[in-house]
Design brief:
Layout (H helix, E strand, L loop, with lengths): L7 E5 L4 H12 L3 E6 L2 H11 L4 E4 L5 H15 L4 E4 L14 H29 L2 E6 L3 H4 L6 H21 L4 E8 L5 H4 L4 H10 L8 H11 L11 E4 L7
Parallel strand pairs: 1-2, 1-4, 2-3, 4-5, 5-6, 6-7
Helix pairs in contact: 1-9, 3-4, 4-6
The chain binds nicotinamide-adenine-dinucleotide.
Length: about 250
């Protein structure tokens, strides 16, 4: 990557709370950002609110053809992508016996397959320019077995962790880093709406720092991993969980 060219970044799930915070942070750091999300209307609203994103595209990341089409359009309209943040995700809190086959497939499609389709489509340009950053938004669930999170979610995030390691090894010699972040209990609808008040109260007692994580805290960590300063970090999953899990 030449120093003159402004970095181009793709953020998935960009209409969500964390995705919007990541978009905002990358823009503040000088990136041009393409926002992707399946929720087209919410995405357009977010883009208007954030102002400076270069494009917003309604894409289901679990649909391989839609991802190929979107990546081709991004390449044609804006040039090669330097940074991919695989943030799109859906949560299910059902444990194994309460999980339907459809639910299992959907969680895998969005949380795991989507990250693979995007990385596969964007890696060739990263290889050509011998520069790239991929950051996968995993979860503490992959390490803890899922405290409140369900089986499909936990397994999808475990797969995303393994995808991180696999890709990191494949492209390490080509100036491309692939890392993950493993947040727990970020103040987004996954916590404020998908957990009960009783669960939230119990968690606040359990989390050593006694608060939920702010989306901006995760966004800054992702932006660091996307920066040139993080070139010696690859194949790493960084915890951000207020001390809930220490290793
Ligand atoms: N909130 C937490 O406590 C927490 C903890 C650990 C990990 N995470 C992860 O952080 C990421 C962001 O979650 P959030 O908390 O901001 O939730 P959110 O629901 O606000 O954002 C998720 C976004 O992903 C989008 N999305 C869903 N399915 C999609 C698809 N098929 N294609 C494209 N976009 C799709 C949604 O429309 C939404 O805008 C997720 O991957 C989530 O698993 C969140």
């Amino acid at each position: 990557m030449t120093a003159e060219r402004q970095r181009l970044s793709v953020v998935t799930g960009a209409a969500g709370v964390l995705g919007a915070a990541v978009t905002r942070q990358l823009i503040a750091d000088g990136h041009r950002v393409v926002m992707l999300d399946v929720a087209g209307d919410r995405l357009q609203e977010k883009k208007s609110e954030l102002g400076a994103a270069v494009a917003a595209m309604a894409v289901d990341v679990g649909d391989p053809e839609a991802v190929e089409w979107a990546c081709e359009r991004i390449r044609n309209d804006h040039g090669p992508v330097d940074t991919l943040v695989n943030n799109a995700g859906i949560l299910s809190n059902h444990k194994a016996e309460g999980t339907t086959a459809e639910e299992w497939r959907r969680l895998m499609a969005v949380n795991l397959d989507g990250a693979f389709y995007l990385a596969r489509a964007l890696l060739p340009d990263m290889r050509r320019q011998r520069w790239g950053r991929i950051v996968n938004v995993c979860s503490l669930a992959m390490k803890s077995g899922g405290l409140t999170a369900g089986t499909a979610y936990t397994v999808s995030k475990g797969g995303l962790g393994a995808l991180t390691f696999s890709l990191a090894r494949e492209v390490a010699a080509e100036g491309i880093t692939v890392n993950g972040v493993a947040p727990a209990y970020v103040r987004t609808p996954m916590v404020t709406e998908q957990l009960t008040a009783v669960q939230r109260k119990a968690l606040l007692r359990q989390i050593p720092v006694h608060r939920f994580c702010e989306p901006e805290e995760v966004a800054r960590l992702i932006a660091f991993l996307a920066s040139p300063h993080a070139g010696f970090i690859t194949g790493e999953i960084i915890d951000i969980n207020g001390g809930l899990h220490m290793d």
